[in-house]
Amino acid sequence: LARLGGDEFALLIPNTNVEGASQLAQKILDKLRMIEFQSSGNVHNISASIGISIFPEHGSSVQDFMAHADLAMYQAKEAGRGRWHIFAPQDQARELLKTRVLWKEKIETALQEERFVLHYQPILDVGSHKISHAEALVRMIGCDGKLIMPGDFIPTAEHTGLINQIDLTVLKLAFKTLRTMRKANNSLKLSVNLSGRAFDNPELICFLKKELNESDIDAEKLIFEVTETTAVANFSAAKEMMAEIKKTGAKFALDDFGVGYASFYYLRQLPVDYIKIDGSFIRQLAKHKEDQVLVQAIAEISRISGKQTIAEFVEDQPILDLIKTYGIDYAQGYHIAKPSAELPIGS
Q: pTM for the whole thing?
């Protein structure tokens, strides 16, 4: 038995066959289901997904043998977790899973070699027409030195659980940026994205509190962004985590607002300070009357609720002029500035 990672184990079974391996896998799953433990007054269960590969039918090298067991494990997860799956070369999802395994290895290596960086996109205060804060956007540097955008690696990170390590890495980089800003007397606020998995990651909250306690960083300079969809999907955990983090003085922004369901109901329930109106309502704002009505409504309700608004994907002057007439507080998009490795200077 070997531990491969935080929640990954490999078991090598000599002198057995498919039937013996599958029976043992089922026995392990049955035993795990019987385990319960308590944390913060809640009862939790343990589950697992098991992938099985047979030597030498499924690989004559260690790399192929392990990769095929990994693929089978992902098949078990895709089927609903708490299951075992035997590797089959004809699996329809094999190529997708193989790609996911390759990306997983790339992400793990990049984490080990500290090849994640932040780029920054300025956010404009519409009233003063000055840059007020910046959104920190994570990028991965490939082995060839080229930048890899989050759309390429985040889906795999979310499926494999590596997103927790990326969240923590981004937070560490954000604090490094905040320390640099403080030394340079840069007055900008910094906005940092958190994944949906962050709601169940106590390590992240512990790290945040420790950093704030041990540094001179003003917590009010830090804004955490969570998407409306993930916040609603994990509503209780999101609400609890937001309340806990807000005790430090940090702020929250609800990203992609308007694309989820029951938006205005959850707007009242979640302790957020900023509403980021989804770019799908902003891109064609000057041309679409329906978008104009909706954006005005979001701006008005946010104002009544005591929330500030940020319009995403502001890509030309007519859109900027419109959102100013609607009373939207901030603008973000290519018309303001593109993301860059250079940190903007606060006014």
A: 0.74
